[in-house]
Specification:
mainly alpha, about 120 residues
Length: about 120
């Protein structure tokens, strides 16, 4: 049973951060974690059932904020579905890469956030 829990945790971690990269500064250190370094999901069921896990970007932006007051940040990248849909999509790599890579490019163009 613990293997199932570990797989779920790692899958969620993967979908929350896929394709979003922190840049190194001139001193070789990574930039501070910001709202655009994780995906958000504004689906109400996920918000209620997962204790605001869907507000993941706000947690990155302000890690000390209690989970019950996390907000959706409009400038954060948005998942196309809630967590269950994203978990299923991640199990089909060709669909995942096709769909998510296109979203990353669109997000970068819209926000001028360039990631390598």
């Amino acid at each position: 049973m613990s293997i199932f829990g570990i797989l779920q945790l790692e899958t969620v971690n993967y979908i929350e951060h896929y394709g979003l990269v922190r840049q190194k500064n001139e001193h070789g250190r990574y930039e501070k974690v910001r709202h655009h370094h994780s995906w958000n999901s504004d689906h109400i069921i996920g918000k209620l059932l997962l204790f605001n896990l869907s507000r993941h970007s706000d947690h990155h932006y302000n890690g000390s904020k209690p989970y019950q007051v996390l907000k959706s940040l409009p400038e954060s990248p948005q998942m196309p579905t809630g967590y269950p849909g994203m978990m299923v999509l991640s199990l089909i790599p060709p669909l995942w890469f096709n769909h998510m890579n296109a979203r990353i490019i669109k997000f970068q163009l819209e926000t001028k956030v360039v990631q390598t």
